[in-house]
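Our consortium's second objective concerns turning raw sequence data into structural hypotheses that experimental partners can test. To show how far this objective has progressed, the report includes one record in full. It was chosen at random from the queue rather than selected for favorable results. The single chain below, 394 residues long, was entered without modification.
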Amino acid sequence: MAQRDAKKAYQSRMQQQERLAIRYLKIGQSSQCPYYKGIKIIFQNYKKMFASQKLQLEEVNQEKGIPFSLSDKHEKDVSGEYFPNERIAVRCENIPKRTNIAYLCLFNNSEWIPVDWAEIKDDTARFEHMDWRNIVYLVGYYKEGRIIPAAPPILTTEMAKHTISARPNMQKKNKMRLERKYTEAPIIIFLRDLLLDGRFQGSNSPDFKNTIDMHVITQRPPGSYLTVKLDTVYKFRYVRFLARDGIRSDISEVEFYSPSDSVNPLKGIPMGNPPVDGDNSHRMEMAFDGDPLTCYASANLNNAWVGLDFGKKTEINKIRFAPRGDDNSVREGDEYELKYLSMDGWVSLGRQTARTYFLEFSGGPDKALYLLSNLTRGREERPFTYENDTQVWW
């Protein structure tokens, strides 16, 4: 009786997890999250089972060792229930001796994770029940605990239902301008747009009478810090960022600089509107704490602003600011490395320390799959291709 109740409770939990995973798939996030509560949900959908499942891979694999991601005997492949007709055949290259298995892999921020396998027959691996929703796959061999490419990366397109081989064209090289290392969610773009028509103003009156606009944001700012060098040296005691009417003053960082110190921002006493909903995590001090992952958000929707009182008239010749974001945009002062994927693995195109909100690399092969890593901070990374002077995320 107790065993039957335990089995029922276990199955109930697994069914709930599967429903959550299916929901996650339906909202179009599969290319961002290879795992969700222990269930693999890209391309191969696995359901946790109470009873041990037979691992066919162990029977057909001629080599020792099975990838950890495919070794759970309590997982059952249910991909056929969601993608019954989608399939792909991949011609394998440089097949090692005694190798008869190829693995279909997904990238999980740091490495390729096997999510399915197929026997190699006539130099070809055939995978079934594919998820085609604009995903990058890598077919590889499992050797000594790591994945070795068996073919160039495969890009799938949902609309056309066909694959594109991301084989680097070494005869054609790209000059690339890169602004991010990870895909940008729509909410991040929305937060950047909130700053449009915002004004950086100065005054010598605490109520900001007779204000002067030092700078107006006329186009969507980048996702990281933007430096504005002013044409005039202003002298104010009070400065502020004023949002356009009808929206909150919602900004991550605001910095003002003097001609005598271009490195350290001016210090002052924060002033402005109270934070939205009285939330201290969005109080005015957050706009001046030097952390782009915190932010100020005002309660006001009109005349919404945040600023500083320097205590005396102070010269200003530069402004630096950052919208709210995820800190995955290129950040001035951080070191980055750009790599592309070859048949021998990731190949470095060099390292750079960012001098502004973007990086420029030359010599990247056309049609390649790239990865930009921040060597200073952060862990989120996504592969991308470079098409029509734009990063296309996979």
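The partners drew two points from this record. Confidence is low (pLDDT under 50) at residues 13-54. The first helix runs from residue 2 to 26. Both points have been shared with the crystallography group to help prioritize constructs.
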